[in-house]
Design goal:
By secondary structure, this protein is an alpha+beta fold. A hairpin with a 4-residue loop joins strand 4 (145-154) and strand 5 (159-166). Helices cover 56% and strands 16% of the residues. The strands form three sheets. Strands 2-1-5-4-3 form a five-stranded antiparallel sheet, sandwiched between helices. Strands 7-9-10-12-11 form a five-stranded mixed sheet. Strands 6-8 form a two-stranded antiparallel sheet. It has helices spanning 7-21, 24-77, 84-92, 124-131, 168-218, 235-282, 289-320, 332-343, 354-357, 365-383, 425-429, 439-449; strands at 101-106, 109-111, 136-142, 145-154, 159-166, 327-331, 350-352, 360-364, 386-394, 397-404, 453-458, 466-472. The two termini are 76 Å apart.
Length: 477
Amino acid sequence: MPKRPGLRSRFWRRAGSRARRLRLRTRIILAFVLTTLLLSAALSVIVFALTRQNLLNGRENDALATVGFNASVVNRRLSPDIESEALQNLVSTLATPEGSRPVLRVGSDWFQPSFEFEQGDINERLRRTVEGGNPARMRYRVRDKPFLVIGIPIPGHNASYYEATPLDGIEDTLGSLGIILASTGGGVTLASAGVGFWASRRLLRPLVDIGKAAQSIARGDLSTRLEAGAARELVTLTDSFNDMVGALQHRIAQDERFASEVSHELRSPLMTLSASVEVMNTRRAELPERARTALDLLTEDVNRFEHLVEDLLEISRFDVGTAELDLDVFNLLEFVENAVSATSPVAIPIACDPAAARVWVRADKRRLVQVIDNLLSNAQKYAGGATGIFLYHHPKGIEIAVEDAGPGVAVDEREHIFDRFSRGRQAVERGATTGVGLGLALVAEHVRLHQGRVWCEDRTDGLPGIRFIVHLPIAVS
């Protein structure tokens, strides 16, 4: 059976996926911080350990020399007939470092000049070792204070000498050193975060510039170019990027000129064809039935061809950058009512909030008429006609909503339905082939030229259908 991944492997995979989701700049800064933190931590541990070892070794060597000397003094002064008072005075007069506590055992008697360290404070294992005839030393805490206790046996007199050297000074020094090392490590880590931020910003600046240039090109500004800067390593990249954008700009310009020229060239034969169809329609009654059917089909296709050429010419003006606004100031409600009556063969109810009824706008009348006409035509072709038009006034502009009761637009198609030659899956399934897919694309271009936006959404009343909403930031009062 296959082995299930362990907890550790799942943890590392999860950590790796989270790390990949971080921004590149954040990962660089984290790399600086973690590297500095690990190095400073390792260096602090090494410095602390070496300092501690050196301090303890120095204090231990000094204590061993002192204890050995004092033990020899005691050994020379001991005699079988020495008095207890003399032994107490002997212990009190030994030359011990400041803070050291001597303890002397002779037989079953104990002598110590201070009660801060007594015979009961001697570790039992250390005591057994010394009384067994072997010198020994041990570090441990007595009443929460660190001591180095050294014991030396004096076998000729059934005695042993102990000396407790305090280590609290070393402990305080090591505590201060630890605080200094931790503070220094924290400061260095913070400084490394600043260095990482500066380095990442400097290293990633070319990539940021490339990203901004790519976004600008995606928005349609094909004049965007990159500067090589001082980094020699980026010269090849910037040159290749600029050459790519130049080639793309040249290719798009060629395609735009081709579409514009083709559209213009089609107008002359199309006018001739339209005139010929009109002449034939004047003699339509004289034609046999099959010829009249063919003439009707020809007339319909010629009209469709005329709309296609006009739409292509209009779009080519946007592509080559010659489309301009011819601004007028007019009342919004009155304009929409006139536009609907001029473009729609049937009456369409218009709802307007009180604020929108008083709004005057500055816009291009011809283009807004075409926006309304295209939206109404789209509703007529694919949804059986518009069921209502709604006008709203907002602090940042106005909204014109065209609503229908058709099958609607799939959610995944609502962003692409404004693309050129896109008619949507519902239109194809219903066999609505009279459109060419440029109407909504022209709506988007006209609205974009007014610095607005257009989108579609479900009806607010929950009934079947779709709402196309045009937002224009052009309200003047």
